[in-house]
Design a protein that fits this description.
The chain has 248 residues and is α/β, with parallel strands linked by helices. The chain has nine helices and seven strands, in the order E-H-E-H-E-H-E-H-E-H-H-E-H-H-H-E.
Amino acid sequence: MTQRIALVTGGTGGIGTAICRELAAAGYRVVANYFPPELQDAQKWLAEQQADYQDMHIAAADVTDFDSCAAMVKSIEADLGPIDILVNCAGITRDKTLKRMSPEQWHAVINTNLNSAFNITQQVITGMTERGFGRIINISSVNGQKGQFGQANYSAAKAGLHGFTMALAQEAAAKGVTVNTVSPGYIETAMTSAMPTEVLDMIVNSVPVGRMGSPEEIAFTVAWLADERNAYTTGANIPVNGGMYMSA
């Protein structure tokens, strides 16, 4: 069987890196998307990953720009082949209470965290449905489920991402393409480690498991959803949050 190709947007970030490595370990050819101005960092990242996984690749695109995404996908498919697995992982924060939030902060988060899913997914969905196989996995957040003070933009984008999942799952289900959401809780990354100790302690105290999650735990869930054998799970939102938020 031809080796399947996985594209991970925001693939050089903390959670993105863990996802890329998990998918590579599962035998996929993995392409990590990065923001074009960060080429030097992406090249360094690639050299580090290829020490363990030779079949790792990088591809540049501004995920907020539809044409940039189209050009990236076209280039990947010309060089490697069709994309079978898409993980929409790109995301940023611009936290501020709504009364102090600028239009730029609102639009930056909506464009990167939500509009990017449209920009990338539309490039691959037709090919997936025509081939009769595809896995689309959208990385949301516990704060898209419960909301978070100072994150109206982020919570709206992440909640919208699961709405996107549910609608597309219905469009693609009969064609062998599953679409699911993973909603991480607080995960140990460079971004969270920079937070003040008292804030981190408060977060950990709110998690029933009693600790923050690891990027590898998110990656494991993504790999499970990407597996060919997992063909009957679609339109789901899988919470990986240590019990921080539970719903029926």
